[in-house]
Amino acid sequence: MRRLVTSLSVVAMAVMAPLAYGQPDCLFDWYGYLELTGPDNTVGTGGVCRALFDVVQPDPCFALDTATNEYTVVIDNLAISGVVPIGGGGFQTMWTGGSIRVYEDPAKNADFLVPGTFVDGTLILIGGPYTTFVRFRQGSGIGSFLGDHGWTGGTRVGDLPGCQAEGWRTFGGLSSVVTLPAGYAEAWDGQFFCNAPVAVQKGTWGAIKALYQ
Amino acid sequence: MKGATVTLLAVIGILASGTSLAQTPLIDYYGAAWETGGFPPSNLGDFFFVVGFVDGVDTSILTWNPSGNEYTIYLTDFESQGQTDDGFGNLHVFYDNGRVVVYEDSTPDGDFGSGTPPNATSPFTFTDGTIYLSGVFSSFQMYYNVPFSLGSYDGYFDFVGGTHLSELTNTDAYTFAGTLGPNMGPVPDGYDLWIDGEITLLPTAVKEKTWGGIKSQYR
């Protein structure tokens, strides 16, 4: 079992390459909830996350007018593809798919009990699918999630600096301990951030050897 | 019938408070964390800290002025009780004695700086201004998967101070967050983890009352 867990972790890690170290080039922070379409920790069960951008954007790589608009996020078409039990009654789940949509809406009507209020307004960013997505859920009901993706469309995809099609990461914490809106399994507090990959630089063999002398 | 009526009122009370608390976290924050001696490992007697920024509050409960002020958060004094390893690469740590402080600062100067804090700008640029809210933890734990450099923490605390304490209808609170290690997230130089989390108020507990006690409230 430990060999299988290690193997799955190694395979997942192989496609989650380290990003450039340090401050992100772009970061959007949000909060929301996860709805599951079937039993948790079961291969084939789908998930939908609905979320809202925070009012104060930590590193707005393009202008967001939160005084006028609300910005809603929907991550759907996720499906559990693998489940690995971890200690203490928890699970590590791998997910496939995932389409990400961000809407700008002056109606400011988002209600987690009314899914349609998260897909109204202008579709400003379209992203996904995830190249890899992992979720840890501890037996105590808390956990975290991490996935790699790019942005591929939307009215403002051209406003993203540097990294656009690739190099984005979805990350956050989750909890089922909090009071949840009806129909949701977990609170998700997360962010999208990007660190532009470090560019390949040309160099001579002698210069490279000199770095290690 | 009298017993059923009391039960119905209690249920309505729970549903009403649950709905209003369920949609927006009281405080949303992100930041960076470090532990004395580095993390991982978390050794008995190490201390864990978080500095960060508040980027959202539940304005149906709290007032704030994000256009005029910077709001920062400081989690401090969490003493590690040492880590356990489940053998699957997952670490589990309990911490004692932590505190949380949210600051309201008219000078937007929060800066992680460079190097493990205390450094030239941290934590002091996250602890200037007035104390907006403060709390004392009764429990705090962290999980961390070493291969993925990915983890989470949560804890229960009571709000006990701050200029906006009177706006809270309940002081029982809870926080959870995701944690991300270096090379997987934008961890500032010298820090151990990148953090994204929130604080929520816990529902008011159901309290037993007699029918006479309830009637007396409406006389």
Structural commentary:
The complex is a heterodimer of chains A (213) and B (219). With 213 residues, chain A is mostly beta strands. Chain A has two helices and ten strands, in the order αββββββββββα. Chain A has helices at residues 2-14, 205-211, and strands spanning 26-36, 46-53, 70-85, 91-105, 122-127, 132-137, 142-149, 151-153, 168-175, 186-194. An eight-stranded antiparallel barrel of chain A has the order 1-2-3-4-6-7-9-10. In chain A, a hairpin with a 4-residue loop joins β6 (132-137) and β7. Chain A starts with a helix and ends with a helix. Chain B has one domain (2-217). In chain B, 13% of the residues lie in helices and 44% in strands. Chain B is built from two helices and nine strands, in the order αβββββββββα. The longest helix of chain B has 21 residues, at 2-22. Residues 1-21 of chain B have low confidence and may be disordered. The interface between A and B is large, with 55 and 52 residues.
Helix-strand layout with pairing:
The complex is a heterodimer of chains A (213) and B (219).
Chain A: H1 2-14, E1 26-36, E2 46-53, E3 70-85, E4 91-105, E5 122-127, E6 132-137, E7 142-149, E8 151-153, E9 168-175, E10 186-194, H2 205-211
Antiparallel strand pairs in A: 1-2, 1-10, 2-3, 3-4, 4-5, 4-6, 5-8, 6-7, 7-9, 9-10
Chain B: H1 2-22, E1 27-35, E2 47-57, E3 70-85, E4 90-96, E5 99-105, E6 130-145, E7 150-161, E8 172-180, E9 193-201, H2 211-217
